[in-house]
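Priority: medium. Attachment 1 of 2:
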Protein backbone atom coordinates (compact mmCIF):
# COMPACT_ATOMS: atom_id res chain seq x y z
CA UNK A 1 0.00 0.00 0.00
CA UNK A 2 1.42 3.39 -1.00
CA UNK A 3 2.30 6.03 1.57
CA UNK A 4 3.39 9.67 1.35
CA UNK A 5 6.50 10.86 3.13
CA UNK A 6 6.41 14.62 3.67
CA UNK A 7 9.16 16.79 5.12
CA UNK A 8 7.29 19.87 6.21
CA UNK A 9 8.25 23.51 6.37
CA UNK A 10 8.70 24.37 2.68
CA UNK A 11 6.77 27.46 1.51
CA UNK A 12 4.79 26.53 -1.57
CA UNK A 13 5.47 28.69 -4.62
CA UNK A 14 4.72 28.33 -8.30
CA UNK A 15 1.80 27.66 -10.59
CA UNK A 16 -0.46 24.63 -10.88
CA UNK A 17 -3.62 23.90 -12.81
CA UNK A 18 -6.83 22.66 -11.22
CA UNK A 19 -8.17 19.46 -12.81
CA UNK A 20 -11.71 18.74 -13.94
CA UNK A 21 -14.16 18.01 -11.15
CA UNK A 22 -14.51 14.47 -9.80
CA UNK A 23 -17.97 15.02 -8.35
CA UNK A 24 -19.22 16.66 -11.56
CA UNK A 25 -17.67 13.99 -13.81
CA UNK A 26 -19.46 11.02 -12.22
CA UNK A 27 -23.10 12.03 -12.97
CA UNK A 28 -21.99 13.58 -16.28
CA UNK A 29 -20.54 10.23 -17.35
CA UNK A 30 -23.74 8.46 -16.24
CA UNK A 31 -25.71 10.82 -18.52
CA UNK A 32 -24.29 8.85 -21.47
CA UNK A 33 -26.94 6.23 -20.61
CA UNK A 34 -29.67 8.74 -21.57
CA UNK A 35 -28.89 8.72 -25.29
CA UNK A 36 -27.89 6.31 -28.03
CA UNK A 37 -25.56 8.91 -29.55
CA UNK A 38 -21.90 9.37 -28.49
CA UNK A 39 -21.10 11.67 -25.57
CA UNK A 40 -17.65 13.29 -25.37
CA UNK A 41 -16.52 14.65 -22.01
CA UNK A 42 -13.34 16.71 -21.78
CA UNK A 43 -11.16 17.39 -18.75
CA UNK A 44 -12.29 14.27 -16.88
CA UNK A 45 -9.76 13.69 -14.06
CA UNK A 46 -7.85 10.41 -14.02
CA UNK A 47 -8.89 9.03 -10.63
CA UNK A 48 -9.87 5.71 -9.07
CA UNK A 49 -13.51 6.92 -8.98
CA UNK A 50 -13.70 7.94 -12.66
CA UNK A 51 -12.03 4.65 -13.66
CA UNK A 52 -14.61 2.77 -11.62
CA UNK A 53 -17.37 4.69 -13.38
CA UNK A 54 -15.84 3.74 -16.76
CA UNK A 55 -15.94 0.10 -15.63
CA UNK A 56 -19.51 0.33 -14.39
CA UNK A 57 -20.76 1.98 -17.57
CA UNK A 58 -19.01 -0.68 -19.69
CA UNK A 59 -20.87 -3.34 -17.68
CA UNK A 60 -24.09 -1.43 -18.47
CA UNK A 61 -23.49 -1.65 -22.22
CA UNK A 62 -21.82 1.77 -22.51
CA UNK A 63 -18.12 1.25 -23.35
CA UNK A 64 -15.79 4.23 -23.61
CA UNK A 65 -12.44 5.36 -24.85
CA UNK A 66 -10.19 7.55 -22.72
CA UNK A 67 -7.54 9.73 -24.37
CA UNK A 68 -5.10 11.73 -22.25
CA UNK A 69 -4.67 15.32 -23.53
CA UNK A 70 -1.45 17.28 -23.89
CA UNK A 71 -2.93 20.77 -23.61
CA UNK A 72 -4.94 21.45 -21.62
CA UNK A 73 -4.15 18.35 -19.56
CA UNK A 74 -6.91 16.01 -18.40
CA UNK A 75 -8.53 13.16 -20.25
CA UNK A 76 -11.20 13.09 -22.91
CA UNK A 77 -13.68 10.28 -22.41
CA UNK A 78 -15.88 9.23 -25.33
CA UNK A 79 -18.86 7.14 -24.29
CA UNK A 80 -21.46 5.41 -26.46
CA UNK A 81 -24.15 2.90 -25.59
CA UNK A 82 -24.00 -0.31 -27.64
CA UNK A 83 -26.13 -2.63 -25.51
CA UNK A 84 -29.12 -1.01 -23.76
CA UNK A 85 -30.36 -4.36 -22.45
CA UNK A 86 -27.91 -4.34 -19.50
CA UNK A 87 -29.54 -3.01 -16.32
CA UNK A 88 -27.51 -4.48 -13.45
CA UNK A 89 -25.08 -2.36 -11.38
CA UNK A 90 -23.37 -5.11 -9.44
CA UNK A 91 -22.41 -4.97 -5.76
CA UNK A 92 -18.74 -5.57 -6.66
CA UNK A 93 -18.50 -2.13 -8.28
CA UNK A 94 -20.97 -0.20 -6.13
CA UNK A 95 -19.16 -1.19 -2.93
CA UNK A 96 -15.95 0.41 -4.28
CA UNK A 97 -17.76 3.64 -5.17
CA UNK A 98 -21.00 4.86 -3.58
CA UNK A 99 -21.48 7.38 -6.38
CA UNK A 100 -22.41 4.42 -8.63
CA UNK A 101 -25.96 5.24 -7.47
CA UNK A 102 -26.04 8.00 -10.10
CA UNK A 103 -26.64 5.44 -12.89
CA UNK A 104 -30.05 4.67 -11.34
CA UNK A 105 -31.99 7.68 -12.70
CA UNK A 106 -30.56 7.55 -16.25
CA UNK A 107 -31.11 3.78 -16.57
CA UNK A 108 -34.65 3.95 -15.31
CA UNK A 109 -35.50 6.85 -17.62
CA UNK A 110 -34.04 5.38 -20.79
CA UNK A 111 -34.35 1.61 -20.25
CA UNK A 112 -37.46 1.54 -18.10
CA UNK A 113 -35.77 -0.59 -15.46
CA UNK A 114 -32.68 -0.78 -13.25
CA UNK A 115 -31.19 -3.11 -10.66
CA UNK A 116 -28.56 -1.24 -8.65
CA UNK A 117 -26.79 -2.52 -5.56
CA UNK A 118 -27.81 -0.48 -2.51
CA UNK A 119 -24.74 1.58 -1.50
CA UNK A 120 -23.65 1.08 2.09
CA UNK A 121 -22.36 3.72 4.50
CA UNK A 122 -18.75 4.80 4.47
CA UNK A 123 -16.17 6.34 6.79
CA UNK A 124 -17.97 9.67 6.87
CA UNK A 125 -21.44 8.44 7.84
CA UNK A 126 -24.50 6.34 7.03
CA UNK A 127 -25.10 7.90 3.60
CA UNK A 128 -28.79 7.02 3.06
CA UNK A 129 -30.39 7.20 -0.42
CA UNK A 130 -34.05 7.37 0.66
CA UNK A 131 -34.53 10.79 -0.98
CA UNK A 132 -33.32 9.44 -4.35
CA UNK A 133 -35.92 6.68 -4.13
CA UNK A 134 -38.73 9.01 -2.98
CA UNK A 135 -38.03 11.31 -5.91
CA UNK A 136 -38.05 8.48 -8.44
CA UNK A 137 -41.28 7.13 -6.92
CA UNK A 138 -42.81 10.57 -7.40
CA UNK A 139 -41.98 10.16 -11.11
CA UNK A 140 -44.07 6.99 -11.11
CA UNK A 141 -41.32 4.40 -10.63
CA UNK A 142 -42.07 1.21 -8.70
CA UNK A 143 -39.15 0.54 -6.39
CA UNK A 144 -38.41 -2.33 -4.07
CA UNK A 145 -35.41 -3.83 -2.34
CA UNK A 146 -34.34 -7.34 -3.25
CA UNK A 147 -31.31 -9.02 -1.67
CA UNK A 148 -29.41 -5.77 -1.26
CA UNK A 149 -30.42 -4.41 -4.67
CA UNK A 150 -32.67 -1.47 -5.54
CA UNK A 151 -35.04 -2.83 -8.17
CA UNK A 152 -36.74 -0.01 -10.05
CA UNK A 153 -39.29 -0.15 -12.88
CA UNK A 154 -40.91 2.63 -14.87
CA UNK A 155 -44.74 2.70 -14.97
CA UNK A 156 -46.63 0.74 -17.65
CA UNK A 157 -45.55 2.00 -21.06
CA UNK A 158 -41.96 2.29 -19.85
CA UNK A 159 -41.87 6.08 -19.41
CA UNK A 160 -41.61 8.11 -16.21
CA UNK A 161 -44.06 10.97 -15.74
CA UNK A 162 -43.29 14.48 -14.56
CA UNK A 163 -44.26 15.48 -11.02
CA UNK A 164 -43.70 18.12 -8.38
CA UNK A 165 -41.61 16.93 -5.45
CA UNK A 166 -39.77 18.08 -2.34
CA UNK A 167 -36.23 16.79 -2.03
CA UNK A 168 -35.22 18.23 1.35
CA UNK A 169 -33.97 15.97 4.13
CA UNK A 170 -32.79 16.43 7.72
CA UNK A 171 -29.39 17.72 6.51
CA UNK A 172 -30.58 19.78 3.57
CA UNK A 173 -30.99 18.49 0.04
CA UNK A 174 -29.09 15.70 -1.62
CA UNK A 175 -26.53 16.35 -4.35
CA UNK A 176 -26.49 12.98 -6.10
CA UNK A 177 -30.23 12.57 -5.42
CA UNK A 178 -30.89 15.83 -7.27
CA UNK A 179 -28.60 14.60 -10.09
CA UNK A 180 -30.54 11.34 -10.30
CA UNK A 181 -33.99 12.96 -10.43
CA UNK A 182 -32.83 15.71 -12.79
CA UNK A 183 -31.41 13.14 -15.22
CA UNK A 184 -34.47 10.89 -14.99
CA UNK A 185 -36.95 13.75 -15.46
CA UNK A 186 -35.36 14.90 -18.76
CA UNK A 187 -37.05 11.98 -20.53
CA UNK A 188 -40.26 11.87 -18.46
CA UNK A 189 -43.64 12.71 -19.95
CA UNK A 190 -44.60 16.24 -18.80
CA UNK A 191 -43.12 18.71 -16.36
CA UNK A 192 -41.12 17.99 -13.20
CA UNK A 193 -40.50 20.55 -10.48
CA UNK A 194 -37.87 19.71 -7.85
CA UNK A 195 -38.33 21.84 -4.72
CA UNK A 196 -35.41 21.98 -2.27
CA UNK A 197 -33.06 20.84 -4.99
CA UNK A 198 -29.33 20.82 -4.24
CA UNK A 199 -27.74 24.10 -5.44
CA UNK A 200 -24.21 22.72 -5.79
CA UNK A 201 -22.23 23.84 -8.87
CA UNK A 202 -21.90 20.19 -9.94
CA UNK A 203 -25.72 20.07 -10.33
CA UNK A 204 -25.51 23.16 -12.55
CA UNK A 205 -22.78 21.48 -14.61
CA UNK A 206 -25.01 18.43 -15.09
CA UNK A 207 -27.97 20.60 -16.11
CA UNK A 208 -25.74 22.44 -18.61
CA UNK A 209 -24.66 19.15 -20.15
CA UNK A 210 -28.22 17.80 -20.28
CA UNK A 211 -29.43 21.02 -21.93
CA UNK A 212 -26.61 20.66 -24.48
CA UNK A 213 -28.03 17.18 -25.14
CA UNK A 214 -31.46 18.66 -25.85
CA UNK A 215 -33.08 18.68 -22.39
CA UNK A 216 -35.22 21.59 -21.17
CA UNK A 217 -34.05 22.43 -17.66
CA UNK A 218 -34.43 25.79 -15.92
CA UNK A 219 -33.41 26.94 -12.44
CA UNK A 220 -30.39 24.70 -11.80
CA UNK A 221 -28.27 26.31 -9.07
CA UNK A 222 -31.43 27.44 -7.21
CA UNK A 223 -33.62 25.36 -4.85
CA UNK A 224 -36.33 25.02 -7.53
CA UNK A 225 -35.47 23.23 -10.77
CA UNK A 226 -38.05 22.82 -13.54
CA UNK A 227 -37.66 20.16 -16.20
CA UNK A 228 -39.89 19.86 -19.28
CA UNK A 229 -39.55 16.25 -20.41
CA UNK A 230 -38.48 15.57 -24.02
CA UNK A 231 -38.82 12.41 -26.15
CA UNK A 232 -35.11 11.90 -26.65
CA UNK A 233 -31.67 13.34 -26.00
CA UNK A 234 -28.76 13.59 -28.42
CA UNK A 235 -24.99 13.29 -27.93
CA UNK A 236 -22.80 16.26 -26.96
CA UNK A 237 -19.21 17.41 -26.61
CA UNK A 238 -18.77 19.02 -23.19
CA UNK A 239 -15.97 20.21 -20.91
CA UNK A 240 -16.32 19.31 -17.22
CA UNK A 241 -16.12 22.20 -14.73
CA UNK A 242 -12.91 22.54 -12.65
CA UNK A 243 -12.82 20.79 -9.28
CA UNK A 244 -13.71 23.34 -6.59
CA UNK A 245 -12.61 21.02 -3.78
CA UNK A 246 -9.23 20.33 -5.37
CA UNK A 247 -8.84 24.08 -5.92
CA UNK A 248 -9.76 24.77 -2.27
CA UNK A 249 -7.33 22.12 -1.07
CA UNK A 250 -4.39 23.66 -2.96
CA UNK A 251 -5.37 27.17 -1.85
CA UNK A 252 -5.26 25.91 1.73
CA UNK A 253 -1.97 24.08 1.07
CA UNK A 254 -0.43 27.37 -0.04
CA UNK A 255 -1.93 29.19 2.95
CA UNK A 256 -0.75 26.67 5.57
CA UNK A 257 2.84 26.94 4.34
CA UNK A 258 2.64 30.73 4.16
CA UNK A 259 3.42 30.33 0.47
CA UNK A 260 2.55 32.17 -2.70
CA UNK A 261 0.92 29.84 -5.19
CA UNK A 262 -0.91 30.58 -8.43
CA UNK A 263 -3.81 28.33 -9.43
CA UNK A 264 -5.12 28.22 -12.98
CA UNK A 265 -8.54 26.92 -13.98
CA UNK A 266 -9.86 27.92 -10.55
CA UNK A 267 -13.69 28.04 -10.17
CA UNK A 268 -13.66 31.14 -7.94
CA UNK A 269 -17.44 31.71 -8.08
CA UNK A 270 -18.01 28.28 -6.51
CA UNK A 271 -15.63 28.99 -3.63
CA UNK A 272 -17.22 32.10 -2.14
CA UNK A 273 -17.72 30.66 1.37
CA UNK A 274 -14.11 29.43 1.55
CA UNK A 275 -12.74 32.76 0.27
CA UNK A 276 -14.88 34.65 2.79
CA UNK A 277 -13.53 32.61 5.72
CA UNK A 278 -9.97 32.87 4.40
CA UNK A 279 -10.33 36.63 4.24
CA UNK A 280 -11.22 36.59 7.98
CA UNK A 281 -8.29 34.32 8.73
CA UNK A 282 -5.82 36.55 6.88
CA UNK A 283 -5.33 34.68 3.61
CA UNK A 284 -5.76 36.67 0.41
CA UNK A 285 -6.95 34.96 -2.74
CA UNK A 286 -7.05 37.35 -5.65
CA UNK A 287 -7.87 36.83 -9.28
CA UNK A 288 -4.95 37.98 -11.38
CA UNK A 289 -5.08 39.50 -14.84
CA UNK A 290 -4.39 37.20 -17.74
CA UNK A 291 -1.30 39.20 -18.69
CA UNK A 292 0.44 38.18 -15.50
CA UNK A 293 0.14 34.51 -16.29
CA UNK A 294 0.15 34.34 -20.07
CA UNK A 295 3.11 31.99 -19.94
CA UNK A 296 0.97 29.31 -18.31
CA UNK A 297 -2.66 30.26 -18.83
CA UNK A 298 -5.18 29.02 -21.35
CA UNK A 299 -6.48 32.37 -22.65
CA UNK A 300 -8.82 30.85 -25.23
CA UNK A 301 -10.70 28.98 -22.54
CA UNK A 302 -10.65 31.62 -19.80
CA UNK A 303 -14.15 32.17 -18.33
CA UNK A 304 -14.31 34.67 -15.45
CA UNK A 305 -15.50 33.09 -12.21
CA UNK A 306 -15.39 29.58 -13.63
CA UNK A 307 -11.82 29.31 -14.88
CA UNK A 308 -9.78 32.03 -13.19
CA UNK A 309 -6.14 32.29 -12.36
CA UNK A 310 -5.74 33.18 -8.69
CA UNK A 311 -2.84 34.11 -6.47
CA UNK A 312 -2.81 32.98 -2.83
CA UNK A 313 -0.88 34.93 -0.23
CA UNK A 314 -1.16 34.80 3.56
CA UNK A 315 -0.20 36.82 6.58
CA UNK A 316 2.38 35.32 8.90
CA UNK A 317 -0.14 35.22 11.72
CA UNK A 318 -3.53 33.67 11.07
CA UNK A 319 -6.72 34.76 12.85
CA UNK A 320 -9.06 32.18 14.35
CA UNK A 321 -12.60 31.94 12.99
CA UNK A 322 -15.98 30.19 13.24
CA UNK A 323 -17.14 27.87 10.47
CA UNK A 324 -20.24 25.77 9.95
CA UNK A 325 -20.43 23.43 6.99
CA UNK A 326 -23.65 23.80 5.02
CA UNK A 327 -25.11 22.95 1.63
CA UNK A 328 -23.87 25.21 -1.18
CA UNK A 329 -23.35 28.20 -1.16
CA UNK A 330 -22.33 27.55 2.48
CA UNK A 331 -18.93 26.26 3.52
CA UNK A 332 -18.44 22.80 1.91
CA UNK A 333 -18.10 19.74 4.10
CA UNK A 334 -15.50 18.49 1.60
CA UNK A 335 -13.10 21.25 2.77
CA UNK A 336 -13.74 20.95 6.51
CA UNK A 337 -10.73 18.70 7.29
CA UNK A 338 -8.33 20.84 5.23
CA UNK A 339 -9.61 24.04 6.90
CA UNK A 340 -9.20 22.44 10.31
CA UNK A 341 -5.54 21.75 9.52
CA UNK A 342 -5.05 25.46 8.75
CA UNK A 343 -6.88 26.62 11.88
CA UNK A 344 -4.64 24.39 14.02
CA UNK A 345 -1.98 27.06 13.39
CA UNK A 346 -4.14 30.15 13.93
CA UNK A 347 -3.56 32.56 16.76
CA UNK A 348 -6.48 31.66 19.07
CA UNK A 349 -9.59 29.50 19.29
CA UNK A 350 -11.67 28.53 16.25
CA UNK A 351 -14.96 26.66 16.22
CA UNK A 352 -15.78 24.23 13.42
CA UNK A 353 -19.25 22.66 13.21
CA UNK A 354 -20.13 19.91 10.73
CA UNK A 355 -23.78 20.13 9.65
CA UNK A 356 -23.74 17.77 6.66
CA UNK A 357 -21.96 14.68 7.99
CA UNK A 358 -21.87 15.16 11.79
CA UNK A 359 -19.35 12.32 12.27
CA UNK A 360 -16.90 13.38 9.58
CA UNK A 361 -14.02 13.83 12.01
CA UNK A 362 -11.65 10.91 11.43
CA UNK A 363 -8.81 13.39 10.95
CA UNK A 364 -9.18 14.74 14.50
CA UNK A 365 -7.41 11.82 16.23
CA UNK A 366 -4.61 11.89 13.65
CA UNK A 367 -4.11 15.66 13.95
CA UNK A 368 -3.85 15.18 17.71
CA UNK A 369 -0.89 12.86 17.04
CA UNK A 370 0.77 15.78 15.27
CA UNK A 371 0.42 18.09 18.25
CA UNK A 372 -2.86 19.81 17.35
CA UNK A 373 -5.01 21.07 20.18
CA UNK A 374 -8.56 19.90 19.41
CA UNK A 375 -11.61 19.24 21.56
CA UNK A 376 -14.58 17.55 19.95
CA UNK A 377 -18.10 17.74 21.29
CA UNK A 378 -20.59 16.03 18.98
CA UNK A 379 -20.58 17.77 15.59
CA UNK A 380 -18.36 20.63 16.84
CA UNK A 381 -14.61 20.86 17.27
CA UNK A 382 -12.87 23.56 19.25
CA UNK A 383 -9.56 24.20 17.51
CA UNK A 384 -7.11 25.93 19.84
CA UNK A 385 -4.30 27.28 17.74
CA UNK A 386 -0.80 26.04 18.44
CA UNK A 387 2.57 27.46 17.35
CA UNK A 388 3.61 24.37 15.41
CA UNK A 389 2.60 20.91 14.29
CA UNK A 390 5.06 18.05 14.60
CA UNK A 391 5.50 15.36 11.95
CA UNK A 392 4.29 11.85 12.82
CA UNK A 393 3.13 8.66 11.11
CA UNK A 394 -0.63 9.00 10.55
CA UNK A 395 -3.36 6.99 8.90
CA UNK A 396 -5.42 8.25 5.98
CA UNK A 397 -9.06 7.26 6.56
CA UNK A 398 -11.26 8.94 3.98
CA UNK A 399 -10.55 11.16 1.02
CA UNK A 400 -10.88 14.63 2.53
CA UNK A 401 -9.60 13.68 6.02
CA UNK A 402 -6.46 12.45 4.27
CA UNK A 403 -6.12 15.74 2.40
CA UNK A 404 -6.28 17.54 5.76
CA UNK A 405 -3.41 15.38 7.03
CA UNK A 406 -1.30 16.11 3.95
CA UNK A 407 -1.76 19.84 4.59
CA UNK A 408 -0.79 19.40 8.22
CA UNK A 409 2.29 17.46 7.08
CA UNK A 410 3.32 20.26 4.71
CA UNK A 411 3.42 22.70 7.63
CA UNK A 412 4.75 20.37 10.33
CA UNK A 413 8.28 20.25 11.70
CA UNK A 414 9.99 17.00 10.67
CA UNK A 415 8.65 14.04 8.71
CA UNK A 416 5.02 13.03 8.36
CA UNK A 417 4.21 9.62 6.93
CA UNK A 418 0.70 9.28 5.55
CA UNK A 419 -0.29 5.66 5.20
CA UNK A 420 -3.06 4.35 2.91
CA UNK A 421 -2.95 7.11 0.33
CA UNK A 422 -5.28 5.11 -1.90
CA UNK A 423 -8.01 7.19 -0.24
CA UNK A 424 -6.41 10.31 -1.75
CA UNK A 425 -6.06 8.69 -5.16
CA UNK A 426 -9.87 8.47 -5.30
CA UNK A 427 -10.16 12.24 -5.52
CA UNK A 428 -6.83 13.96 -6.26
CA UNK A 429 -5.00 13.27 -9.49
CA UNK A 430 -1.31 12.68 -8.67
CA UNK A 431 -1.45 14.94 -5.65
CA UNK A 432 2.23 14.47 -4.82
CA UNK A 433 3.26 15.72 -8.27
CA UNK A 434 1.10 18.83 -7.97
CA UNK A 435 2.59 19.60 -4.56
CA UNK A 436 6.13 18.86 -5.82
CA UNK A 437 5.52 21.36 -8.64
CA UNK A 438 4.89 23.92 -5.90
CA UNK A 439 8.15 23.01 -4.17
CA UNK A 440 6.84 20.66 -1.46
CA UNK A 441 9.09 17.90 -0.19
CA UNK A 442 6.70 14.98 -0.66
CA UNK A 443 7.38 11.49 -2.04
CA UNK A 444 5.17 8.51 -2.73
CA UNK A 445 6.60 5.23 -1.50
CA UNK A 446 5.35 1.67 -1.69
CA UNK A 447 7.55 0.61 1.22
CA UNK A 448 5.50 -0.20 4.32
CA UNK A 449 5.82 2.88 6.49
CA UNK A 450 6.04 2.88 10.27
N1 LIG B 1 -29.12 12.42 2.95
C1 LIG B 1 -30.31 11.93 3.46
N2 LIG B 1 -31.09 11.15 2.66
C2 LIG B 1 -30.73 10.85 1.38
C3 LIG B 1 -29.53 11.37 0.86
C4 LIG B 1 -28.73 12.16 1.67
O1 LIG B 1 -30.66 12.18 4.61
O2 LIG B 1 -31.48 10.14 0.72
C5 LIG B 1 -28.26 13.25 3.81
C6 LIG B 1 -26.85 12.70 3.96
O3 LIG B 1 -26.77 11.74 4.99
C7 LIG B 1 -26.07 13.95 4.26
C8 LIG B 1 -26.77 15.01 3.43
O4 LIG B 1 -28.07 14.50 3.16
O5 LIG B 1 -26.23 14.29 5.62
C9 LIG B 1 -26.09 15.33 2.12
O6 LIG B 1 -25.80 14.12 1.39
P1 LIG B 1 -25.80 14.09 -0.19
O7 LIG B 1 -26.80 13.10 -0.66
O8 LIG B 1 -25.89 15.46 -0.72
O9 LIG B 1 -24.35 13.49 -0.48
P2 LIG B 1 -23.94 12.75 -1.80
O10 LIG B 1 -24.71 13.30 -2.94
O11 LIG B 1 -23.98 11.28 -1.60
C10 LIG B 1 -22.05 14.38 -2.59
C11 LIG B 1 -20.57 14.30 -2.81
C12 LIG B 1 -19.84 14.24 -1.48
C13 LIG B 1 -20.20 15.49 -0.67
C14 LIG B 1 -21.73 15.54 -0.49
C15 LIG B 1 -22.19 16.79 0.24
C16 LIG B 1 -20.35 13.13 -4.93
C17 LIG B 1 -19.89 11.94 -5.67
N3 LIG B 1 -20.25 13.11 -3.60
O12 LIG B 1 -22.41 13.17 -1.93
O13 LIG B 1 -18.46 14.29 -1.79
O14 LIG B 1 -19.57 15.43 0.59
O15 LIG B 1 -22.36 15.52 -1.79
O16 LIG B 1 -21.77 17.92 -0.42
O17 LIG B 1 -20.78 14.10 -5.53
C18 LIG B 1 -16.18 13.75 -1.49
O18 LIG B 1 -15.97 14.18 -2.64
O19 LIG B 1 -15.26 13.50 -0.68
C19 LIG B 1 -17.55 13.54 -1.05
C20 LIG B 1 -17.85 12.76 -0.03
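Attachment 2 of 2:
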Amino acid sequence: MDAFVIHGGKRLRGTVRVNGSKNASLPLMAAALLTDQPLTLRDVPDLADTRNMVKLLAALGCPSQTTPNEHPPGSTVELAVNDPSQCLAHYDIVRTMRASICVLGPMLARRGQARVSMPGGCNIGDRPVGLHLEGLRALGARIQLDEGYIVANAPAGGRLRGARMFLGGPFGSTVLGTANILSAATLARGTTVIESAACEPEVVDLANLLNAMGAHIAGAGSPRITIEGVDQLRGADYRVMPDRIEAGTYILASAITNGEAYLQNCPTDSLIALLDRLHHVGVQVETVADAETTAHDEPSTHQPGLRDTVRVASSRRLNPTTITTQPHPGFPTDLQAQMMALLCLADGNSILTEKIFPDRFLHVAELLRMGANLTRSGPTVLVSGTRELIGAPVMASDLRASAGLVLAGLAARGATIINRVYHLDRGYEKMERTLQALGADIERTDQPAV
